[in-house]
Write a structure and sequence with these properties.
The chain has a single domain, classed as STAS domain (Transcription Regulator spoIIAA, 2-Layer Sandwich), CATH 3.30.750.24. Helices cover 32% and strands 35% of the residues. It contains three helices and six strands. The chain has helices at residues 30-43, 62-77, 89-97, and strands spanning 6-13, 16-25, 49-60, 81-85, 105-107, 117-121.
Length: 123
């Protein structure tokens, strides 16, 4: 059995914080992604958009769904919006089956982001 991996990169723009995930989001990787998303929430600092790019995620399990619900609620508590970028069934199908499609702002392409990058944080 091979160990699933997840690589996470984030960048802070003048109007948003973008977190990109590459790999598998499952029980063994969700905590690490959640830590990075919590850091991103802290970096919002008045910005109103947290973008989670899952377009290069190869597996998206129940732990990922639970994570989305928690982070979405934290965004709402801060007056921000969580945008999920996903175009593959790997991510879209679990969200649909769980009945969560209407809860999240989901886009198959990166939403329009304005402003210059103000910080980069490769993982």
């Amino acid at each position: 059995m091979s160990m699933q991996t997840l690589h996470v990169e984030s960048r802070v723009l003048s109007d948003s914080v973008v977190v990109e995930a590459h790999g598998a989001v499952d029980m063994s990787t969700a905590d690490g992604l959640e830590n990075r998303l919590r850091e991103a929430l802290g970096a919002l600092d008045g910005r109103r958009k947290l973008v989670l790019d899952l377009d290069r995620v190869a597996f998206f399990g129940t732990a990922g769904l639970q994570l989305l619900i928690r982070i979405d609620q934290q965004c709402r508590d801060l007056g921000a919006t969580l945008w999920v970028v996903a175009s593959e069934r790997t991510v879209l199908r679990p969200i649909e089956v769980a009945g969560l499609t209407g809860r999240f702002h989901i886009s198959s392409v990166m939403p329009a982001l304005s402003g210059q990058e103000v910080a980069a944080e490769p993982a």
